[in-house]
From TrEMBL:
It comes from Cyanobium gracile UHCC 0281. Its EC number is 1.-.-.-. It comes from the Bacteria. Coiled coil: none annotated. InterPro entries: FAD/NAD-bd_sf (IPR036188), FAD/NAD-binding_dom (IPR023753), Sulphide_quinone_reductase (IPR015904). Residues 13-128 form the FAD/NAD(P)-binding domain. It is an enzyme of class 1 (oxidoreductase). This is FAD/NAD(P)-binding oxidoreductase. The keyword Oxidoreductase applies. PANTHER family: SULFIDE:QUINONE OXIDOREDUCTASE, SULFIDE:QUINONE OXIDOREDUCTASE, MITOCHONDRIAL.
Length: 431
């Protein structure tokens, strides 16, 4: 049961705002390190989502039941769950005001709210979503309809987009496209009559050059057209037209209209409004919580830490990034409470299991240096069947039973599964 938020004022030593992957992971690691520590989690949702599994479930690679659980079942033992949301942040006064009007004071605040999907930044998109061929795997209510539209596609132009803003799971726009293309090619008469176009607002397909070279080979092999510096700004659903602002190449920005039969949209993303409007936000686009890139501590409020998608940490926003950030934040938070220097530093580690087909994955791991790193003792730039098994069979179990239990902080990825990973380490196909 969630704790009552009826009192006018409450105090907790550690207040975590957000009960998603980042917030639960931090709470679990704190309580494992300091049993009995007064930790409260402010989270309104009753269902906890394994968002990394949405694409897998929609594509039939993972049962939907493995993508969600009741929030009450993932709250760590010893933590207090306040089932409410943050209405405002007052860091000067060390308190958060909830939507129910309760003032929550704290010694240390951890902000882990995640981000918001800003559908309205694309003109015509909110009302078009789910009809006239407009779909999105980023909209949980539309996931099943998205994959039905892909499976029922009869041919024509299938358009996939990537926005100009940072997004959670940066490889997801391509994952959906590659799986959809597999479905098109396997459907009689559809593949030969389908034109697949990937329009990205970015300057290249992937931010790390070594992985970019891999995905360039993938799209070339598949015959997918790529259009870079193309940012979706409007959807004219009844006309089935996607309107892009095109920048780059030293030319003036221009508009380009592309007709489509199927349009998969990845919306722009930003910090939740309550964060962007608060003193915690960084000045500039996004409204992210302004933290030191190495310590996860706020640059202006020493008793505030942040991690995950809502933070300004300059790395890809992913669950793997949270796994790297959480132990650093926990070590530094405990040091702060005890008046010690902050001992831990985050190196920017993140990862994206980039699904390139229904049986292979590029396990794209990297850090602030934007160089490939590998937790699996193999070349991470290769498409591998072994990594497909890790992504679809191992990671969901690890998420529920290791990550959310605070048990994965001793290693980046799969220390308990090291023998399995080594056994599966050979590439199925060197591409």
């Amino acid at each position: 049961m969630g704790a009552s938020a009826s009192d006018h004022h409450r105090h907790h030593r550690v207040l975590i705002v957000g009960g998603g992957s980042a917030g639960i992971t931090v709470a679990a690691q704190l309580l494992r390190a300091r049993p009995g520590l007064d930790v409260a989690i402010l989270e309104p949702a009753t269902v906890h989502e394994y968002q990394s599994g949405w694409i897998l479930a929609g594509a039939g690679l993972l049962p939907y039941a493995q993508t969600q659980r009741q929030e009450a079942t993932v709250i760590p033992a010893g933590a207090v769950w306040i089932q409410d949301s943050a209405a405002s942040f007052e860091p000067e006064a060390r308190r958060v005001i909830t939507a129910a009007g309760v003032a929550l004071s704290y010694e240390v605040l951890v902000v882990a709210t995640g981000l918001k999907l800003d559908w309205s930044r694309i003109q015509g998109l909110p009302e078009a979503l789910g009809q006239h061929g407009v779909v999105s795997n980023y909209s949980h209510p539309h996931i099943a309809a998205t994959w039905k539209a892909i499976r029922d596609f009869h041919g024509g132009t299938a358009l996939f987009t990537h926005p100009a803003t940072p997004i959670k799971c940066g490889g997801a726009p391509q994952k959906v496209m590659y799986l959809a293309d597999d479905i098109f090619q396997a459907t009689s008469g559809v593949g030969v009559n389908t034109r697949v176009i990937f329009c990205s607002a970015l300057a290249q397909l992937y931010p790390v050059q070594a992985y970019n070279a891999t995905v360039e080979r993938v799209v070339e092999r598949r015959g997918i057209e790529t259009r870079l510096f193309h940012n979706l700004v409007e959807v004219r659903a009844e006309e089935r037209l996607a309107v892009f602002e095109v920048r780059g190449g030293g030319r003036e920005p221009r508009r380009e209209e592309i007709p489509y039969d199927l349009l998969h949209v990845v919306p722009p993303m930003a910090a939740p409004d309550v964060i962007a409007a608060s003193p915690l936000a960084i000045l500039g686009p996004g409204g992210w919580v302004e933290v030191d890139k190495f310590t996860c501590q706020h640059k202006r409020f020493g008793d505030v830490f942040a991690l995950g998608d809502v933070s300004s940490l300059p790395t890809a926003k992913s669950l793997a990034a949270v796994r790297g950030q959480a132990p650093v934040l926990v070590a530094n938070l405990l040091a702060w409470l005890e008046g010690r220097p902050l001992p831990a530093q985050y190196d920017g580690y993140t990862a994206c299991p980039l699904i390139t087909c229904f049986h292979e994955v590029v396990m794209a791991e990297f850090d602030y240096s934007l160089q490939p790193v590998s937790s699996f003792l193999v070349d991470p730039t290769k498409e591998r069947w072994s990594m497909f098994l890790v992504e679809t069979r191992v990671f969901p179990w690890v998420y529920w039973h290791r990550v959310l239990k605070g048990r994965l902080h001793e290693s980046r990825f799969l220390k308990p599964f090291a023998p399995l990973v080594r056994a599966l380490g050979l590439a199925r196909r060197e591409t």
